[in-house]
């Protein structure tokens, strides 16, 4: 199916009251989640382990079908059903380097005796400038053979192949973990240029905030129960501005504040539950669903209504 869906001018990703539940799971991972991201934004996705960041990226990446059917619109297209999106959308996660067989469509044995220059050779040949730029930036040797590289080198090859084709939407799931610090910094700068010069929209889920303070244009906080936390332009977040003015590591402290508050609320709820013998999980997390004190700069959320 390929049919344009009306979307607000200048917006790249619209998520409206998204709910997603894994088949075997007792309850939904994502509940009433909303997001509106402008084209050219670099959005950092923050949330505790298991909050649903990877799930959200997979939904936006068209790997899971969510409810309601039109909940996720990417560049005016249905995130799951519109296969045309696959020409302009890239999704990179940690799975690649761990598997012996690549993700669907490429069929490349990632740890087989194959040279980097022969992997996705057509796509590399079609984008020679990007290939050369990324090859240098990532320090990839086209002669490397995939059965002889380290985890970090395999990750660099993944990035080369995942980024070589120009994208309008890029979804990154904790992808920089095994990169050394210099390559990581260079890559972040390259990604910044992609958004500033080509207008690409990037969503990046990570727990590593080192060196990221200047990078995102937007933040999205996914609460522990898969709902919308604070989101908006980073400069609209007072806590971030204060920390920057004080010369403190801003993103690390913002994330710590949010996640610490959330953890304390979860622990308090558990204690209350133990004391009363009732289940109070859902209610315990409500403060975060309604902003939890981080409302300024937040974008549309139907949960407020
Ligand atoms: N295939 C699956 N089937 C059932 N449940 C799943 C599946 N994948 C993830 N989950 C569950 O969904 C929830 C969210 O997982 P997800 O990987 O999206 O979280 P995350 O925020 O990316 O976590 P982390 O920061 O640890 O990577 C978790 O409770 C997880 O157990």
TrEMBL record:
- Tell me which residues make up the ABC transporter domain: 13-249
Key words, A-Z: ATP-binding, Hydrolase, Nucleotide-binding
| Molecular-function annotations in GO | ATP binding; ATP hydrolysis activity
Check the record and name the Pfam families matching this protein: ABC_tran
The residue ranges flagged as biased composition, category Basic and acidic residues, are 273-284
Asked whether the UniProt record includes Nucleotide-binding among its keywords, one would answer yes
Designated name of the protein: P-loop containing nucleoside triphosphate hydrolase protein
Would the keyword Nucleotide-binding turn up in this protein's UniProt record? Answer: yes
**UniProt cross-references to InterPro entries, sorted A to Z:** AAA+_ATPase, ABC_transporter-like_ATP-bd, P-loop_NTPase
What is the taxonomic lineage of the source species? Eukaryota, Sar, Stramenopiles, Ochrophyta, PX clade
- What residue spans carry the region label Disordered? 273-293
* Organism, scientific name: Tribonema minus
